[in-house]
Structures are given as C-alpha cells and as structure tokens.
Amino acid sequence: MASANMDVSQLSESQQLALQQYMSVTDQDVAAAIPLLQRSQWNVEIAIAKFFDGEGPDLIAEALAAQNAPPPRAARQENLQQSLFDGSIRSSRSRSPPDAAPRIVPQPDDQVIYRPPFLLSLIFTPFSFLYRLLSLPFGFLSYLFPFLPRMFRPSPTVGTTRRTNTIGRKPLKPRDCAARLKREFEEEYGPNNLPLYDGGYAQALDLAKKDLKFLVIILTSPEHDDTSSFIQDTLLSAEVSEFFNDPKNDIILWMGDVRDSEAYQVSTALRCTKFPFTALITHTPEQGSTSMSVVARITGPVPPTTYLTKLRAGIATHAEKLATVRATRSAQQFERSLRDEQNSAYERSLAQDRERARLRREAEAAAAAEEKRIADELAAALALKNKREQWKRWRVQAIPPEPSLDSKNVVRIALKMPEAARITRRFSGDASVEELYAFVECYDLLQSETVGESTKPEEYEHKYDFRLVSTLPRVVYSIEDGGTIGEKVGKSGNLIVEPISDDEDEEDEED
Asked: Entry's SUPFAM superfamilies (predicted)?
C-alpha cells in the first residue's frame, strides 16, 4: 500500500513500528494514518489522542512533546496492545493512577436522620429540655379535652389549596429503581436487547469485583438535549448492542437516571459534568487487591464507532491483567478445593479409624464383660455347690436312725430314686415331710461310712430339686403343705422321686 507522499517500504524501521501501533488501535487506513503521524512527529501517543479528541492548534507543544518523547521500544507480541492502549488513554491527561470507583449505598429518605451541628445542639439543649417538660402536661390536657388543640389551630384561608410535593420522583429501593428505569426505557424507545443489570449500583460493583468483569456505567438525564439522540443512534445501534451482549467481553451494564437518588449520588461521586455519561470500571490489581477504578470516561454524544473504540481500548488495556488475576484466583481456588478435599478425606479416614477403634473397644469390653459374667457364674455355681455339700453334711447329722420293727407309729415307704434304684425304709409317723425330703437328699452320704462333721452354711437357703409324688391317684407331697409323714402318707406308701427341671422352676416362680 502507498500513501499520498511515500510508500510504507520507504519508512524507517521506527516509523513502520509507529504506523503499526497506530493502526492497531485506530483501525485507520494507511493513506490517512501516515499524514497524521507526520503532523505528530511520528509520536504514537499524540497521534492516537488527535484521532479520538481532534487535532489541537498548539503545534509548539506537539514539537516539544516530539523532542522529549522516548524512542519506540522493540515490539513484543504479548504486550503490544497493552502499551498502545495505555498510551491512548493517558495521552490527554496526566499519568496519575486511575480514579477509584466509589461504592455508594443510598439510604432511603424516610430513614435519614437529620442532626444539627454539635455546637447548635449544645446551645439549644436547655430549650429542648424545657419544651419537653412543658409538652407533657399539655399532652395530658389534650387527652382529657380533645377540643383544646382545635381551638388553637389556625383556620385555613378561603381559596387556598393544600400544597403537595411534586418535585422529583418517588424514592424507591435500588432494585425497584432499576425495574422502573427499564420499564420507562422500553416505553420511550421501544423493546431492546440491552443486558441491563436489574439491581443497584453497589450490587453491580460488588458483582464486577467478585467475577472480575468490566462494569459499564451509563448515566442519563431526560432533560438533556443529547440524551435521546445518544440512546437512539449510539446505545441502541446494532454493533453496540452486540458488543454489550457478547459474553467474551465480560461486561456488566448498569444504567441510571440522575432523577433517582442513587444515580445522582453516582454521578456526583464520578464527577460527571456532562450528559450522557459513560464510565468503564474494572478491577485494578496494581492499586490493591480489592480496588475498583474508573479506567475510561465517555461524555456527550459520540458515534457508535468512536464509542466502541474507546470502550475496547479500555477493556484491552486491562484484559490481560484481569486474565492474570483470574488465573491466580483459579489456581488458588483449585488449591483450596484440593486442600478441602484432602482435609475431608483425612477427616473421613480419621472418623473411620475412630469408629473402628470404638467398635474394637466395645467388642473388647463386651468380651471382657462376658468373660467376667461367665467367671462370676462359675464362681457363684461353685460357691453354691460347696454350700450345698456343706448343708448336706450338716443336715445328714440330724437325720434320725431308722425305727425298729417293734416301734409304734411307723410308716413304711418305698422310694423309687431317679437312678432306677428302689429303696424301702421305715420312718416315724410323727416326723415331718421335710425329714423324708432330707433323707432322699442325703441318701448318698448315708451310704458313705466317712461323713465329717459340719456346720450350717451362712446366707444359704436350701432348695430341693425334686419332689415326692404318688401315683394312682397322683398326689404331690410338698414341704410347703406341712404335716407329718403319717398324716400325708398313712401306714405305707410307694413314692417316686421326680426331678424338677429349670423350666418348671421358672413356671412355679411365675405362678
């Protein structure tokens, strides 16, 4: 391609680099770009500023800037756009850091408490105390006599009307204000596909800070003459709407009417002096870990191409920084999630180990308790057996010998023992039934020739594990019924020693 004066190949290396930088920002053709760069002494920053803001008449300042401008740096593919866009934004103003974006949370008018200055409140404190002191009895009298307040109230003048406050709009909450603005916008300019945020400015700012997105603030004033043309020609144009709806741009669009309290406070905080006003706000990590700054301002009505160029320049300037912060946050979030998963897995493993240890302790405790129970039962059974043997040795000493054949009141009883042995013995008719039971219980000791002396065991109550019954008819002779052998059995009898099982003992205890 050739310009009006020379070919691109005739330019020096530094001039070709300046031309490439200028065209990548402004997207201007070569025929118009080379003369503008020549008038700007091949200074890319001055040329970009002239393209966006118009050429100024101060040629001496341009020459001085061209003399003081440093030579262009070597091109770096990864930082080329960043260096260009930084120069285009800061060329028309000082190189100070971007303004911080304020966070505004409007307070409803009904919740605002107006307080006088401290000095005035101190001076009028005695009067206020006196007024409250006098108002108490007057209020009591007004309660007793309701006609008194009407007597002292001035009557309205004929022909006067009640004044109402018609200035301004009804104050609403931020979300309701956003819904009202969207409804009025559609009623005035028709349906549109602008992705307007349906919350307040503070919520939009917090969302942009959290998600690392660009926040575009548009402030309008219906009383301004350029508002209607800006909205119809620029804001509602196809390229601008497509730009705002493109998810790759990561834009949150918030729009406000300065007649609303929140939008008015935002315009004051952003130092808006001309409407319509557009501000591009984004996270600036160089200013702080949580800082939000205004990186671009667009005032007045501008064509859609210029409007988009300025927004794209501001976005491209900070896109790489935001991508770095997003990558850092993603890495931190991944590390945090991995650490949480590891901690969760460790806690689950620790809980499983604790559960296994608890079950093992419970099993060991149950086994120990079972062993102790068995040992106690064995010890109790052994002690019971020893006491039973001791009782038998003691009781056998009290069993009287068998009466002689010529004795009177003798009862002859035949006993069938459990071992299928049959015993026949004479008993005194005056002896109790318990003597018969004791004889059967101690029969094995009576057959032994060596029976030592013994005493009655302490804390022992002997229970016979058998009963004496007769057949045809079946009669049970129990110790609890009492009586003597002669009364129960008669002169003779055939009795069976019938063992008592454990189940029958339980049934007897239940009965």
From this structure: Thioredoxin-like, UBA-like, Ubiquitin-like
Rounded (10°) angle between helices 261-269 and 201-211: 60
pLDDT in tens, the chain (511 residues): 334 445 777 888 888 888 888 887 777 888 888 888 888 888 887 888 777 766 655 444 444 444 444 444 434 444 444 444 444 444 444 446 777 877 777 655 444 455 667 777 788 788 877 877 877 777 777 767 766 666 655 544 433 333 333 345 788 899 999 999 999 999 999 999 999 999 999 999 999 999 999 999 999 998 888 899 999 999 999 999 999 999 999 999 999 999 998 999 999 999 888 899 999 999 988 877 678 899 999 998 899 999 999 999 999 988 888 888 888 888 888 999 999 999 999 999 999 999 999 999 999 999 999 999 999 999 988 988 888 888 888 888 888 888 887 888 888 888 888 876 788 888 888 888 888 888 888 888 887 767 677 788 888 888 888 888 988 788 888 888 888 888 888 888 888 888 887 666 555 555 5
DSSP codes of every residue in 214-259: EEEEEEE-TTSTTHHHIIIIIITSHHHHHHHH-GGG-EEEEEEETT
Q: Are 81 and 24 in contact (CB under 8 A)?
A: yes
Which residues on neighbouring strands pair with residue 80, listed in sequence order? Answer: none
Q: In this structure, are residues 11 and 19 in contact, taking their beta carbons and an 8 Å threshold?
A: yes
d(CA 218, CA 307): 12
Q: Tell me the Cα Rg of the chain.
A: 56
d(CA 219, CA 277): 5
**What is the full DSSP assignment across 301-323?**
---HHHHHHHHHHHHHHHHHHHH
CB atoms within 10 A of CB 493: 17
As a whole number of angstroms, the distance between CA 389 and CA 451 comes to: 11
Beta strands in 119-223 (DSSP E): 214-220
Tokens of 348: 């689950």
Global pTM reads 0.46
Taken in order of first residue, the domains within the chain and their CATH numbers are 8-92 (no CATH), 97-146+170-364 (3.40.30.10), 397-510 (3.10.20.90)
DSSP label of 7: B
* CB-based contact 247:311 (threshold 8 Å): no
- Asked whether 387 and 395 are in contact (CB, 8 A), the reply is no
Count other Cβ atoms within 10 Å, centred on residue 350: 10
Q: Cα separation of 114 and 324, whole Å? A: 46
Residue 231 CA from chain centroid, whole number: 43
